[in-house]
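Exercise 3.2. Students should predict the tertiary structure of the chain below and write it as structure tokens, then compare their answer with the key that follows.

Predict this chain's 3D structure.
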Amino acid sequence: MPLLSFLLFVLITSFTPGPNNIMAMAFANTHGFKKTIRFCLGVGVGFFVVTLACIFLNLWLTNLMPIIEFPLTMLGVGYMLYLAFSILTSKDSSDNKDGGHTHFFLIGALLQFVNPKGILFGMTVVATFILPYYSSYFSYLVFSLFLGIVGLMSTCCWSLFGSMFQTFLSQYRQAFNIIMAMLLVYSSISILLK
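Answer key:
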């Protein structure tokens, strides 16, 4: 396997803005880094499971892709627009200490199953870098675990950014929420226009 290409692809794709990273930053800005860790862990676990599913279902999904591509895309876009609306209408953290999101882990994990960027990333990394070079179940498990950890690290970095600038951004919460929501809407539109 071309290790450098694999690592560059994984790092660039994981750390660029997408639903996971935008939500992590927005959650951390609103609720703080400590509460957002649950979301980040959910992203890591969810992506681990999605990667395993991509490995074992890669050939099968490739044959079915023309059938499921549109519904999967619409489900992902719909969920991303819902998340954008949630960010746009979120209350100030001082008004709502729990934030209404006691299930951050579950939100992070479930996001992976409707996150088109994550699913396409998983399909690409599996088809390009894993299946052509490895055939043991142990190696599949190790790569899935590695990619889940990278997902955890990327969302933690974005969460850290959101929490570090929490005081500054709280002065501009409405503008920040509008920008984050617009980024999610842009992500949704770009998926539809691909």
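Discussion points: DSSP finds eight helices and no strands in the chain. The chain has one domain: 3-9+20-192.
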